[in-house]
């Protein structure tokens, strides 16, 4: 029986583990397929407070893990196959570890950025290919930038990146954009935003140690073209990592966990969500860490209010 199990080890999960451990709750943290979360695929991070010279993503995650361990958090690797939140204590089935019981569960499994799945893309993540304009836009001052996508996120990122780049070219598979009219209008009114519509991305092309551009197929002429750029930002959406919950938690239409405003509380008392798995707007390391702190404090308060519960009754059921 654990007082709290934290599922996921990104900034949210590790911050929750730090706070829980300092409160003598001895949390168990389940590391999945990507310990440290998406930041382990990021090179230099310059917008996380406390590091005036920046810090590498893997180093930041390793430091947070060591800090949690220092206060007594326990880490185990495994893939959460399913959970049972119908009764307390909650049951968490982990591949290789079996069934674990917990008084509270904090879900911090994040959201995975959708990628194009074209040659050269994965090889150049953090080396010119990015899925986060706010994280990496600073590195492309006076550079040519490409944004792939046609939704609101793509329009927002294109506008944001014009603060840094000399030009931003929006590449979309179709002639029509999915973005709302107001977001399209904002992008079209921006003189630094260029358009390459009705073009299908084929390959991220490199030259030497850097990017040369994006090879695309012109769907009208059926000819291949190279759009030169120093950076390619993929903005085709995110997928929250919530399939293992099997609809036991209230989520929105996309799959993001719905929490009570101003808290990390889900519709199930004792189950909390933090980080990108419940954040459809900010998706930043610092905001994820902040929500991890909130989740730990919410879990601690929940346990304090339920100390007299007879767990043997639930276990007997």
TrEMBL record:
Report the catalytic activity. [thioredoxin]-dithiol + NADP(+) = [thioredoxin]-disulfide + NADPH + H(+)
Q: What class of enzyme is it?
A: oxidoreductase
State the Gene Ontology terms under molecular function: thioredoxin-disulfide reductase (NADPH) activity
Q: How is the cofactor bound?
A: Binds 1 FAD per subunit.
Q: What's any one GO cellular component for it? A: cytoplasm
FAD/NAD(P)-binding domain mapped to chain residues:
3-292
Any GO BP annotation: removal of superoxide radicals
* EC assignment: 1.8.1.9
Q: Name one Pfam family in it.
A: Pyr_redox_2
Q: Which Gene3D superfamilies is this protein grouped with?
A: FAD/NAD(P)-binding domain
InterPro entries the UniProt entry points to: FAD/NAD-bd_sf, FAD/NAD-binding_dom, Ferredoxin-NADP_redctase_2, Pyr_nucl-diS_OxRdtase_2_AS, Thioredox_Rdtase
Q: Which cofactor does it need?
A: FAD
Keywords of the record, alphabetical order, are: Disulfide bond, FAD, Flavoprotein, NADP, Oxidoreductase, Redox-active center
NCBIfam families in UniProt: TRX_reduct
Q: How does it assemble?
A: Homodimer.
UniProt record similarity statement: Belongs to the class-II pyridine nucleotide-disulfide oxidoreductase family.
Give the protein's recorded name.
Thioredoxin reductase
The scientific name of the source species is: Paenibacillus crassostreae
């Amino acid at each position: 029986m654990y007082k709290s199990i934290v599922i996921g080890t990104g900034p949210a999960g590790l911050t929750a583990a730090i706070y829980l451990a300092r409160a003598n709750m001895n949390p168990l943290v389940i590391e999945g397929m990507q310990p440290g979360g998406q930041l382990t695929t990021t090179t230099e991070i310059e917008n996380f407070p406390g590091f005036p010279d920046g810090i590498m993503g893997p180093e930041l995650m390793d430091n947070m893990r060591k800090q949690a361990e220092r206060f007594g958090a326990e880490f185990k690797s495994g893939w959460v196959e399913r959970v049972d939140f119908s009764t307390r204590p909650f049951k968490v089935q982990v591949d290789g570890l079996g069934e674990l019981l917990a008084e509270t569960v904090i879900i911090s499994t994040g959201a995975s950025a959708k990628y194009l799945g074209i040659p050269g893309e994965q090889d150049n993540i953090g080396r010119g290919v990015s899925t986060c304009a706010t994280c990496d836009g600073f590195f492309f001052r006076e550079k040519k930038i490409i944004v792939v996508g046609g939704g609101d996120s793509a329009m927002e990122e294109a506008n944001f990146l014009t603060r840094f780049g000399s030009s931003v070219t929006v590449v979309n598979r179709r002639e029509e954009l999915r973005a709302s009219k107001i977001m399209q209008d904002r992008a079209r009114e921006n003189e630094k935003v260029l358009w390459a519509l009705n073009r299908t991305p084929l390959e991220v092309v490199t030259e030497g140690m850097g990017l040369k551009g994006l090879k695309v197929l012109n769907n009208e002429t059926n000819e291949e073209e190279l759009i030169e750029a120093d950076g390619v930002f993929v903005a085709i959406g995110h997928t929250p990592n919530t399939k293992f919950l099997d609809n036991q938690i209230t989520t929105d239409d996309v799959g993001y966990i719905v929490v009570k405003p101003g808290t990390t509380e889900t519709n199930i008392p004792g189950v909390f969500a933090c980080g990108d798995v419940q954040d459809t707007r900010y998706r930043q390391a610092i905001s994820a860490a902040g929500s991890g702190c909130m989740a730990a404090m919410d879990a601690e308060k929940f346990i304090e209010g339920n100390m007299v519960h007879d767990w043997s009754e639930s276990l007997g059921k």
